[in-house]
Amino acid sequence: MAVLSKSFQEWLSGRRCNELLHPHTCRRAAFENLFRFAWSNSKYYLPVVLLHLGKHSLRSGGANREILLDTLWYYIQLVFGGVMDASLISISMCSLRKFLGKFHFYTLLFIPATFGGAFCALFPKRVKHLQHTAIFQALIESLLLHLNPLSKLLASSVSLQTVIFMVCSAVILEGKQRKWYNGFWFLTPDAPTDPDVPPQRKSCSHSELDCGLYIVRGIRNYLIIGLALDVFRYLVSSSKLNQWSLSHLNFQSTAWLGCYVGLYRAVHCYLQSIPIVNESLKHPFAGCLGGLSYFFYPKLTILSYALLEAIRTLSSKNHKTGESKKNRFGWSDLLFPLSLAYLIHNYVMEEQRVSALSGVIIDSTTANYARNISKRIARLQ
Ligand SMILES: [Zn+2]
Ligand SMILES: [Zn+2]
Predict the structure, then answer these.
(1) What's the CA dihedral at 173, 175, 179, 180 to 10 degrees?
(2) Which of 339, 370, 353, 362 is nearest to 142 (CA)?
(3) How far apart are CA 173 and CA 302, in angstroms?
(4) How many other C-beta atoms are found inside a 10 Å radius of the C-beta of residue 247?
(5) Which spans in 101-243 are helix H?
(6) Which H or E run contains 267?
(7) 11: CA distance to ligand 1 center in Å?
(8) What is the pLDDT of residues 117-173, one digit of tens each?
(9) Measured in angstroms, how far is the CA atom of residue 254 from the centroid of ligand 1?
(10) Helix, strand or coil for residue 350?
(11) Could you list which residues have their CB under 5 Å from ion ligand 2?
(12) What residues have a C-beta under 5 A from ligand 1, the ion?
């Protein structure tokens, strides 16, 4: 459904709030939405905090009181952030309608979403980071799918996607090894080699005496992590759909992670034994070839995340570490409201311009508010 600006003015601009946005009065809608947004955000963020709890419990050898309290606090912060975003956007949609006397193409969703999204800059750092990651990833995926012929070519070519993923993989793993940026990535890089050791005696940095054992251990560990992720995803999607068929359980993440770490470690160990290769190129080259694994598990969602993390890595590298750590605000605080507004506006007005992931994020955090507006517009046109 594409709502053009002209037909919008003709059919929709004179409508009242309770025809287009919500039933009942604006005040009642704002009050009821608080509970609906809180419920939908509680469901949406539950898997995130369970992963957070699992990760920290594994690191500390079990869940203690401190970890449980921190997880609960994180959950409250995430849900509060989601409710704030959705409420500010929905209330400003009503307020703008009242203030301007009618709806306009960009004041219906784009400007309210920009306004609501701007407050994300004030949220706690970890809440902000998670919201930014979800929206930027969804934006990149949407742009890859629908922006121009070049991105359409990319979306249809797995080989081209693999090449881009390989470059991103090299940048991210190098950045993590050199501590430029410490965001989540699927693989932990090998420890850097000791610069004090003379070049002719340099070998791998791992503690295992045998490289084969190191590679096999890596594959085993990441197969277990991949299996846990696949089972977790199966449980989350099955509980949402209330369908528990084992045919929905696939092991793609397991296979991909095993392949990724196997290739990365094998290439890195092999290169360590070749003295003629430049030291500074060995690790990026291993990260790059490890990215070949994408070819066997191509997912635009993963590619979008890789692009986002590669941009963040390069951007962190270019900032002086001390300065960027002190700065609470950055370029992403400006981009976030605009990206959020672009996604919400297009999700309602031209759904085919945004990715499926964008729709899931928008609907899951707003109790289908945007989808319901889209349905009302379709009925009224
Ligand atoms: Zn209203
Ligand atoms: Zn080795």
Answers:
(1) -160
(2) 353
(3) 15
(4) 6
(5) 110-118, 125-146, 149-156, 158-177, 211-241
(6) helix 252-272
(7) 18
(8) 999 999 999 999 999 999 999 999 888 887 677 777 887 889 999 999 999 999 999
(9) 47
(10) strand
(11) 204, 211, 269
(12) 17, 26, 94
CA of 206 to the centre of ligand 2 (A): 6
The answer to whether 189 touches 204, Cβ cutoff 8 Å, is no
Identify which of 75, 55, 47, 48 has the alpha carbon closest to the alpha carbon of residue 238. Answer: 47
Q: Which ligand is nearest to the CA of 214?
A: 2
Ligand nearest to the CA of 207: 2
* Highest averaged pLDDT of the listed ranges 111-115, 194-198, 323-327: 111-115
Residue 130, token pair as written in the block: 């998670």
Q: Distance between CA atoms of 108 and 8, rounded to whole angstroms?
A: 10
From ligand 1's centre to the CA of 89, what distance in Å?
11
Q: What is the pLDDT of residues 243-284, one digit of tens each?
A: 777 777 788 888 999 999 999 999 999 888 887 777 788 889
Task: Report residue 350: phi and psi, to 5°.
Answer: -140, 80
**Ligand 1 centre from 93 Cα, in Å?**
7
Give the DSSP letter string of 168-194: HHHHHHHHHHTTS-----SSPPPPPPP
Residue reference for tokens 């095993």: 258
Distance 352 CA to ligand 1 centre (A): 27
Helices (H) and strands (E) in the chain, counts: 16, 0
Q: Can you read off the two tokens belonging to residue 85?
A: 């975003």
- Phi and psi at 5, nearest 5°, equal -55, -40
